[in-house]
Structure formats: structure tokens, C-alpha cells
Amino acid sequence: MNFGFLVGVFGVLILSHAAYSTIQYRGLLKIMEEEFSRPPINVILELIIGLALCMWAALTFPGKFLSIHPDSDENRAVSLPDNSDFMIFNHRGRLFPPEIDMKF
Amino acid sequence: MLVSSSKITRAREMVTKTEEKQLNQLEIQVDNGGGGTWEYLCLVRNLKLRRSEKVLKHGSSILNDPRKRSALGPYEWTLNEQVAIAAMDCQCLGVAQSCIKALQKKFPGSKRVGRLEALLLEAKGLWGEAEEAYASLLEDNPLDQAIHKRRVAISKALGKPSIAIELLNKYLELFMADHDAWRELAELYLSLQMYKQAAFCYEELILSQPTVPLYHLAYAEVLYTIGGVENIISARKYYAATVDLTGGKNTRALLGICLCASAIAQLSKGRNKEDKDATAAPELHSLAAAAVEKEYKQKAPDKLQLISSALRILKT
Fold it and tell me: What sequence ranges are listed for the domain EMC2 TPR-like (chain B) (predicted)?
């Protein structure tokens, strides 16, 4: 398990803890019969930290991103496939067959 | 030996740089006796390349070893087919015959094996029997694309390109979306120097697959060959499109731009200044020349002098 994965798990735990705190806070407000406008400041801070950790883990854990540009150096077209549907066999190479023996 | 079916790449319309690098790496590895034979054969099959000698050598080494052959499982028969075709290309007809016999035993009465047998007749040079075999196969399924294409190939092999063109035109009336057939028709027309018809074929290819830069390149070359200021201006546009689609790494397209610019300047010598300025594209020309010199500096520095003087002559 590498570092990115652990950070991701940690971020998810922080987010779920923030969710649980918000639910508890709402329950408390229901008892005190007050309006629920937004979660308390520390929960918001926790949410932001959890977001940052999860985003960092999501970008580093999967490894190397592949290029999607069709004209990037990896994806550019170099040649077309040889048209083997129309392949003909009477070329000069047929005078030099390689020595292959078959045993099956 | 692992049968890594998960690594089988999907066949695509063109060969990319990474695939070419991977192929070369695998080829060197396999030739020097390292493993990876099956991956190499799968890659060659998926990229539809014609490496018949290597496929024959390494494929038959797998098929000769009964342990490796049984490790392949169901892919043994695909390998048989691949080795049979490669053997026919290298004129090792005995090998091809044994592969086809093995396939016949496993799949009796199969149309795919019937096609392979007719292909073997072609490779032996028995054109008449091959034609009959294809005709009888066509009776059972008259819309088999591969058989129609093989009949075109027979006419091509007999040295009758006009008949091949006729057959191919009839085939394309039925199967208009077959890119390989359009490519083949374009090449046949080019071999007969019928450039306008070849240009039409390349236009069809560009329409159906506008992201393949090599069709743009071929079209530009045909236009440049036909000549005339209008055609060369169009050719320059298509060379520029190729440069765009390949990220500037296609040296042929860059040189094409320089040549087009020089040809336009020469052909429009008699015109007045405004016309000349409208058709000239000096920035494009100088950028392309600079890109060519950079490529040569990287890849062939001893030829840099040569190309610089050639480009200088083109600029004047």
C-alpha cells in the first residue's frame, strides 16, 4: 500500500467524520429547536482538508496519466497498417524461402 | 508461458509512435531469444503488419513445441492461421499446408479454412484453380467481403490492373465504407498514373477518416503531382493539415510545404503583385524550413549542411 492510497483513505475518513459531526449537530439543533443554516466552522474546515487530501490522492495514486492529444508524441500516426486483404504472393521474396521444418 | 489475453490491444486504423516503439522493442527481444514471442505475434496481428519472415520463424517455433502449443489454449488456431498466411508469403508451402491441415482437422467444413485453402492455391501460382475455388465459395455466400478482395488481388497479381480496378469499383458500389479497398483503388490508379481518380479516392478516405494524417499527406502529394497553381495551393493546405495532425513531426509534410511554396512562387511569376501576395504564405514557409532544420540537427546532423543549402535554394 503506497503513500497515496493511505492519504486517500485518510481523506475519506475525515470526510465521513465531518458528515457524522454534521448529522449530530443537526440533531442537537432539533433538540434546541433552532434553524439549521450551515454546519459549524470546524466541520467546514474539516471538509476542506478532506477535499484537499482526497484530490491529492486521486491525482497521485493511479500513476502515470496517458496523453489524449492525437498529435502528441506518443499518439501520433506513424504508419498505416499494411493492406493485407490485397496481399499478393508473387513478389521477388518467393525465390528466397527461409529454412523452416515442421514437426506437427 | 503466459497467454496474456488482457494485453491484446484493439486494432486501430493507424500505427501510433508508442505502438511502433513497443513493436521494435519486442522484435529485438524476441530475435535475441528473450521471451515475449506470443505478445509480439499478437501485436503484429492486431496492427495488421506484414512481418512474414519473423512471424513464420517465431510462430513455427511455438507450434513445433507441443508444450507451448497446448499452453496457448484456443488461440492455437489463430496462430495456425497467422503462421499459414506468413508461410505463404515466404513461399514455405509445406509449412502452410501442414497448418491448414491441422485447421481442417479441427474445423471441418469451415468457410474460413476454405478461404485459406484457396489462398494456398494462389500462393502456389495456380490462378485458375484459385478463381474456381473463390467462385464456389461465393456461391454459398455472395456477400463475403474477403473473397471479393482476393479476386481483385488475383487480377493484380496477374498484372492486369485495369481488370482489378473494374472489380474493385464494383465491390465499392456495394461496400462503400471499406477503407482498405479505397486505399487499394487509389494505389492502383497511381500505378496507372490516373492521378485525378486517385485524388478522388483519397478524398473519400479523408471524408470518412479525417483524423488520419497520412491520407491528407497522400492527397497533398497527388495534388502536387497533378500540378497547376490551384492544385499546389490546395496541396500546401493539406500538407499543413498533416503537420497539424502529427504535431509537426512528419518531415515529409514539412518538406512538402517548402516545395509547394517554391513551386507557387515560380508558377505565379507572371502575375501581378496583389495576386502573388495573396497566395504566398511566407511565415508558413520559413516556419516549416526551420522545423526541418531542427529535425535534421537532432536526427542526422551530418546531413544538416545539405538540407540547409537545399532549403535556401527553395526560398529564393
Answer: 113-222
Q: Which residues have C-beta within 8 Å of that of residue B241, sequence separation ≥ 6?
A: B213, B216
Contact A82 B244 (CB under 8 A): no
Task: List the single residue in A with minimal CA-CA distance to B252.
Answer: A78
Tens of pLDDT, residues B210-246: 999 999 999 999 999 999 999 999 999 999 999 999 9
**Using CB atoms, which residue from A69, A73, A87 is nearest to B50?**
A87
Three cell numbers at B45? Answer: 496481428
Inter-chain CB proximity B149 and A86 less than 8 Å: yes
B192 touches B217 (CB < 8 A): no
Whether residue B7 has pLDDT greater than 80:
no
Residue-wise pLDDT for A54-74, tens only, equals: 999 999 888 888 888 888 888
Is the CB of B32 inside 8 Å of chain A's CB atoms? no
CA distance A43 to B269: 77
Average pLDDT, stretch A14-41? Answer: 88
Res B168: pLDDT: 95
Q: What is the pLDDT of residue B271?
A: 77
Decide: B93 and B101 in contact? Cβ < 8 Å.
no
pTM score > 0.90 for this model?
no
Residue B312 C-alpha cell reads as: 535556401
- Do A76 and A70 meet the contact criterion of CB atoms below 8 Å apart? yes
The answer to whether the Cβ–Cβ distance between B245 and A77 falls below 8 Å is yes
All residues of chain A having their beta carbon less than 8 Å from the beta carbon of residue B47 are 81
Partners of A79 in the beta sheet? B15
Helices A41-60 and A3-32 meet at what angle, rounded to 10? 160
